[in-house]
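request received
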Amino acid sequence: MFHKALWMRNQKLGSPAVWGIYISLFLFLPYSFFGKAQTMLTQKNDPYADAPENYFLNFHFTGADIVVFLFFIVGLAALLVGSERTTHATDLTFSLPFKRKDIFLSKWIFGVGHIITGLLINLLLCMLIVKFTILSEVTDAAFLLKFMLVVIPFSIAIFSFSLFIGTIAGNLISQLVLSGIFLFFPLGFISLIVSFLEYHGISINHNSPSTVLFNDLINSFTLPIPIIEFRYYIDLSDNSFTDSSHIPYVMLLIPLAYTILSVAFGTWLFSRTKNENNGRLLVFEKGRGFFTFGVVLCFALTFGMLGGGIFGDYDSRSLIGYYLSAAIGGVLAFFMLKKLIHFRMHFGK
Amino acid sequence: MLRVNNISKTIEGSQVLDHVNITLEPGTIAGLVGRNGVGKSTLLRVIAGILDPDEGQVLFNDTNIHQNPEIKQKITYVPDSTEILKSYSVKEIVKLYDAIYEDFDIVYFYSLLDRFKLPKNKKIRTYSKGMKALFLMILSFSTKSDLIILDEPTNGLDPIVKRNILQFIIEEVSERQLCVLISTHHLEEVEKMADVLIMIKEGRIESTTSIEDAKTSFRKVQVVYKHSLPEKIEQLNNVNIINQTGRVYTLMIKGNIDATLEKLNQENPLLLEELPMTLEDIFISTLGGESHVS
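response:
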């Protein structure tokens, strides 16, 4: 799995996304931090004339700043697996004298290596910028360590999960779309279920401690959320301070579990991959029935949620509207999927 | 060297390969021929380890290639798609193949590029389709593999390059005792260079014979009778009508040739003459049917 040739092959396949990872992290972390420091310095040296004492000693950082990086992680996984399936390149890779398990694990190690390297270098640069610029007057770099504890395991989990999706998706586009859908599936599906229950007269107390705990859990299961929701804000001019960055350390078991399961199942499925179905929506024929059922159900619930208000208002919701919309959504999804599941995407023959 | 044992493969509910058996020895060029969609490419992709068989196994030097892909150090596969390495430059590919194949011969690779006048300092995407096909073949032979699998290798090559590359394959096989398995529609190529002819029909191996045996076991004749072809002749199992113009019939006799010619004579033909026969005649007679073979 550490074979030089596989690394070179992965480098060729994944290089656009790898560049994207490094450049986006650099732009949205150290470059942005340095920009903030320079702005603060300018304001300190040249304060507003009407309130010279209040130059803005505030600093804020949110994980949403690096959302582009998350897209590149998913893109990297899609380039490493999905692009090969779409361009006949699997014919080269699978004819080489390597075990399929090693091919898959080499892709995982390649991606994880670049994600960790990119994050560590750029977060370290951020810490140095905080330490040696005017930012040190406002904050210390400890929050970046906290961020590191969140962003590294969750990013690895997002990449691992997207790579796993690549073992069941038959082409680049389906891998990208399915990765996006399933990464937000826990939160999305719970929202659909809550909507379904509320339409049927079962109200949810959103403020009860158990619901809050459940929401936290679902947010952590929705891998991009803990990164995007990481917030750190400090303003010394009015002594306000926000740090919603901490998540219970036990939650870090979630990305760990995602990673372990994704790598284990991904390796198992990749070793049994059906290359004859490359280019299609799904690689395996066996799971198509279950997949179709799931998609139809989710579309029905989504259409029900969105269209349910047509025949009623917020206080008196119409079940007829809900079910009519759900039926339209389900039928649409069924026929759309029937077409898509047999469509084959191939480039470069 | 290569043993394909009882391989079956079903794709999307239809059986593409049905208990296929092939054995190839070193120093052999084998031509795999068959009509479109009979499973030639699928068979080659199974042998190369790209597709898994539902049943059976592919053994190379008695080692299962699907369970022990490391054995593919000595097997290379050249697909019919020429696009797979297009984002690479020549230098990058040399580095990659040198890292993959222990016996990759860089000096030999560059000497072949010179021999076939392929540019060395360009991206593969700038090559023409024929140049790409040639390049992939050169790459494959430079790995010093013992088994080379070529799927439609001469598509897109001009006649001069095609002749040179066919000559080159013959030289390589005679010098190194390697085995080349070629799938092609160009029967004249198989006729010129192959030792073994493997005919595949509807996923089954119809016959595996040497080219000479194939030619001696068939005879092409033209006959004219006073009326139409006698019923007795028409009912013979080993006689195929490959063409009819009026009362002039072109027949292909498969096996039992002398006895069959005797039967044709007994029906008092106005004309009975043997015609020169090509592999294409055998192909049409064995695998053809009515419609045009591409």
